[in-house]
Design brief:
The chain is α/β, with parallel strands linked by helices. 35% of the residues lie in helices and 19% in strands. The chain has two domains: 3-231, 3-Layer(aba) Sandwich (Rossmann fold), CATH 3.40.50.150; 242-441, Alpha-Beta Complex (Spore Coat Polysaccharide Biosynthesis Protein SpsA, Chain A), CATH 3.90.550.10. Strands 3-2-1-4-5-7-6 form a seven-stranded mixed β-sheet, with helices on both faces.
């Protein structure tokens, strides 16, 4: 027999990936160790809130999916033995024998799609991404993790000594490879980070993994790459309605001008003034302006608490528009700039729109020197913390979808009620929801009436 025929027969005798994993699941549960899988559950549990609609591709025995406590959870795996174990262990979830590259779940859409330790083992990652696109709505988040190429040899050694589950030939994708594949199939990368430099329960492992895995240069040594992406595309057709919340304290001299200059946004705009126990007659000025402008859909609320953050939360809690928007009453951000923010979110380009005052030159005395230094410091800190570039954390104009704000409120207990200005509360909350943060440059003007409230 020729060497070519021998090589061909040898190749044909190799098990397929489905046969390989079926054999693994028939003998033992594939695991790199309980510590590693508990860490995965911890990370995914931070990203994915309870009660979501979740699809887990390559779900194995379903433990990761079950740990997320989804409102509706579907797991697929091409190993029948894995699905049999998943159905036995987690009867409240739905499991199907199916190949991740050719899934067929007609009529289903999910809030989160999980690809945990899957892409390195697929034959065609791009085909898989193409196949899951119909199961995404505009707010769907794709969450994935895969081993770092640096760990290829250590993992092979671990497999040889039966510490890790044996695998067939792997893809060993880099972050850049994966981002390129996401882009090719209409997904946008939102966040990427590293986890776990010590994959075993050794003394101090939790501390190393919690902190050093995300810090230069230790992040190069991390075992797992994590990514969160979203489908790119415009939201449902039709113009959304909008609520503009104006927090006003000691702003009597700006009220008439605000009524004259706030533009119409979308098919219907609602303006909510929240007056914050002013020393001047701001409340009376707003009452008079409402009477003088019956054509404007405007309401006035009296703030019981203190601080702009409290005022914004009061205004947002009563808003009826699809989009909620903040405009400071001091006129440092011009009302004429609001259509830019409306366009940025209504187009689907961004999901949390933040104003940035640090691009264009400012008017004299628009921002004091130490305020400028503080803004730059917070911008750098938040960019590192959130994994998305933030140029200006404290610009008062911020915009988001009202339903996203309601989800933010439901998750607010994670960070706590610590922020009197409301800016950090919204930015951190938006990042926790993995919203696409987009910044709109504006020119920052000096106030013409009164003194700054900050």
């Amino acid at each position: 027999m020729s060497s070519t025929k021998k090589t061909t027969q040898k190749y044909l005798r190799r098990p397929t990936r489905s046969e390989h994993w079926e054999r693994i699941w028939q003998t033992s549960s594939p695991s790199w160790g309980n510590y590693y899988h508990r860490w995965l559950q911890r990370v995914y549990g931070f990203v994915i809130p309870k009660g979501a609609r979740v699809l887990d591709l390559g779900c194995g025995s379903g433990d990761l999916l079950a740990s997320l406590q989804p409102g509706y959870g579907v797991g697929i795996d091409f190993a029948p033995s894995a699905i049999e174990k998943a159905r036995t262990k987690h009867p409240g979830l739905h499991f199907e024998v199916m190949n991740a590259e050719t899934i067929d779940l007609v009529g289903e859409q999910f809030d989160f799609i999980i690809l945990s330790d899957l892409v390195n083992d697929l034959r065609d990652v791009q085909r898989m991404l193409m196949g899951i696109r119909p199961y995404c709505h505009p707010g769907t988040r794709l969450v994935l993790n895969f081993y770092s190429h640096l760990w290829q040899i250590p993992l092979q050694v671990a497999q040889r000594f039966r510490v890790a589950t044996p695998t067939l030939v792997q893809n060993w994708l880099t972050r850049a490879d994966m981002q390129n594949l996401l882009t090719l199939e209409g997904f946008e990368l939102l966040h990427a980070w590293s986890e776990m430099v010590v994959p075993l329960p050794l003394p101090g492992a939790d501390w190393f993994n919690r902190f050093l895995a995300k810090v230069f240069p230790f992040h190069w040594l991390a075992l797992a790459n994590f990514m969160v992406g979203r489908p790119v595309g415009k939201p449902a057709t039709g113009e959304p309605t909008c609520t503009v919340v104006v927090a006003a304290r000691n702003e009597e001299g700006h009220i008439d001008e605000l009524f004259d200059r706030i533009p119409e946004l979308g098919p219907k705009i609602e303006i909510i003034f929240v007056e914050g126990n002013s020393k001047d007659d701001t409340y009376g000025a707003i009452e008079r302006a409402i009477l003088a402008h019956p054509e404007r859909n405007c309401r006035l609320l009296k703030q019981a608490g203190k601080g702009k953050g409290d005022a914004v939360r009061l205004g947002f809690s009563t808003a009826t528009g699809d989009i909620v928007m903040i405009l400071d009453a001091d006129m440092t951000v011009l009302p004429e700039d609001l259509p830019r923010f409306y366009k940025a979110i209504a187009s689907g380009e961004g999901e949390f729109i933040n104003g940035v005052r640090l691009v264009y030159p400012m008017e004299d005395e628009a921002m004091q020197f130490f305020n400028l230094v503080g803004n730059k410091f917070f911008a750098e800190a938040f960019s590192w913390l959130l994994g998305q570039p933030i140029r200006d954390t404290l610009c008062g104009t911020k915009v988001m979808w009202r339903n996203d704000y309601e989800r933010l409120v439901a998750n607010r207990s994670y960070f706590g009620d610590f922020d009197p200005f409301g800016d950090f509360d919204l930015i951190l909350g938006a990042a926790k929801l993995n919203l696409k943060i987009l910044e709109v440059p504006i020119r920052y003007h000096s106030r013409r009436y009164g003194e700054t409230n900050i």
